[in-house]
Amino acid sequence: MKRIQVIDSHTGGEPTRIIVEGGPELGTGPIVERMTVFQDQYDEIRSAVVNEPRGSDVLVGGLLCRPVDDSNSAGIIFFDTAGFLGMCGHGTIGLMVTLKHMGQIEVGRHRLETPVGVIEAEIDQTGKVTVQNVPSYRLDHEIAVEVPNYGTVVGDVAWGGNWFFLVKKTSEVLLVENARHLLDVTIQIRDALKKQGITGTNGAYIDHIELYGSPVDSKNHSRNFVLCPGSSYDRSPCGTGTSAKLACLAADGKLAPGEIWRQESIIGSVFECSYQPVSNGEGIVPSIGGSAHVCAESTLLLDPMDPLCMGIRS
Ligand code: PYC
């Protein structure tokens, strides 16, 4: 019987499950190389941790790793039911609260190693976390996509640690009661992007789709619906998605450096965000602020006699 210890948290309703003990041994190389080893040799562990029956499509997992550089606080490899994520904003907020809960970090600023680079995150006395994400940028502006039986959708392609297509204008109702329909629409948009060969840099698959509209709470600037890889939607405003949004706002001259952007999710949870320009180059460095709460400490049991031991792959 294999045992894997995990700590679960949620960030504005979006769950994160961090493997803190019993995960696969990936060596001591750079985190991006360890992610490749995880992918190539231990993908069934990813599936066992996040897929049903132990997890669900909405769950994001993270493997806590020893950092290459010991002056950094941790290394992390995020994954979900569809595969691996370059970065995860809500997951990083969850990770910080988890590390604090474990007594591994104190209040203050920390560096974390991810497959897409080293990021910084700060946790304060109240548990609020601000993540300084990887540099983010808009790749393509106002791209038209023909979505069969739906119509033409216009949007921007942007990087925020993952690839996003941000729909410019939507008449869809951004309320959680409409989530099933919003999932159908955004999955169709993602399929159409793929068919029409619209990608991120170097042909990267755009696996996240964002719809934006007016906030329900007038204290906020906008509400979003974010389709994640697979077929789930983000309950939080999506840290990497909001980074991509900030990059588009900055490129359009609609948000100044340091100005606050309060992004509301489809369930009403909020990230408070801002950006600074990249010092020598294009794009922005986003800051994403939010809170997470630890909600479980558990041991997953992987019983070789269980026919669904490694999870149900969709
Ligand atoms: O917060 O960056 C994020 C994220 C990505 C996928 C789900 N959440």
List the helices and strands and how they pair.
Layout: E1 2-11, E2 14-21, H1 31-41, H2 43-50, E3 60-65, E4 74-79, E5 84-85, H3 89-101, E6 108-114, E7 117-123, E8 129-132, E9 137-147, E10 151-159, E11 163-167, H4 179-195, E12 208-213, E13 222-227, H5 239-251, E14 261-264, E15 270-277, E16 284-290, E17 292-302
Parallel strand pairs: 2-3, 4-6, 11-12, 13-14
Antiparallel strand pairs: 1-2, 1-17, 3-4, 4-5, 6-7, 7-8, 8-16, 9-10, 10-11, 12-13, 14-15, 15-16
The protein binds pyrrole-2-carboxylate.
Low-confidence stretches: none
Fraction of residues in helix: 10-25%
Shape: globular
Mean pLDDT: 97
> Structural class, judged by helices and strands?
alpha+beta
Give short descriptive properties of this protein.
314 residues; alpha+beta; 37% strand; binds pyrrole-2-carboxylate
Characterization of the model:
The protein has helices at residues 31-41, 43-50, 89-101, 179-195, 239-251, and strands at residues 2-11, 14-21, 60-65, 74-79, 84-85, 108-114, 117-123, 129-132, 137-147, 151-159, 163-167, 208-213, 222-227, 261-264, 270-277, 284-290, 292-302. It is α+β, with helices and mostly antiparallel strands and 314 residues long. It has a 17-stranded mixed beta sheet that branches. β13 (222-227), α5 and β14 form a beta-alpha-beta unit. The radius of gyration is 19 Å and the shape is globular. The model has no long low-confidence stretch (mean pLDDT 97). The protein binds pyrrole-2-carboxylate.
